[in-house]
Design a protein that fits this description.
Blueprint lengths: L18 H14 L8 E4 L3 H4 L1 H10 L2 E4 L9 H12 L1 H4 L5 H6 L1
Parallel strand pairs: 1-2
């Protein structure tokens, strides 16, 4: 999510989180939005995928600066945290898709 416009620049639905999926999402989002080297800062939580060497190398190759939330501090990125809470707890949203295949087909 872009912190200034709150526009979702890239998203993915998957059964689990992984370094390979994080790399694919970041790379596809940078290509889609024509991100030039040294133009983007990516702020992420401290999840294993986002701290992995694979993602770190991809970000370096793309010229993307990375920052991470402080350990055990959930409000370092309140915009993302607010969006995640909405996605997790909105009953209507959970009933919108019959399966993961249905959610990715839209």
């Amino acid at each position: 999510m872009d912190i200034f416009s709150r526009y979702v620049v890239g998203w993915m639905v998957a059964h689990q989180e992984s370094t390979a999926l994080a790399k694919r999402l970041i790379e596809q989002s940078c290509i889609k939005h024509n991100i030039e080297p040294e133009q983007l800062t990516l702020h992420a939580d401290r999840g294993s995928s986002m701290k992995s060497k694979g993602v770190a190398q991809l970000l370096a190759d793309l010229g993307v600066t990375k920052t991470h939330s402080r350990p055990y501090v959930s409000n370092d990125n309140p915009y993302s945290e607010s969006q995640f809470k909405t996605l997790k707890y909105c009953p209507k949203l959970h009933a919108s898709f019959g399966s993961i295949q249905h959610s990715t087909a839209l």
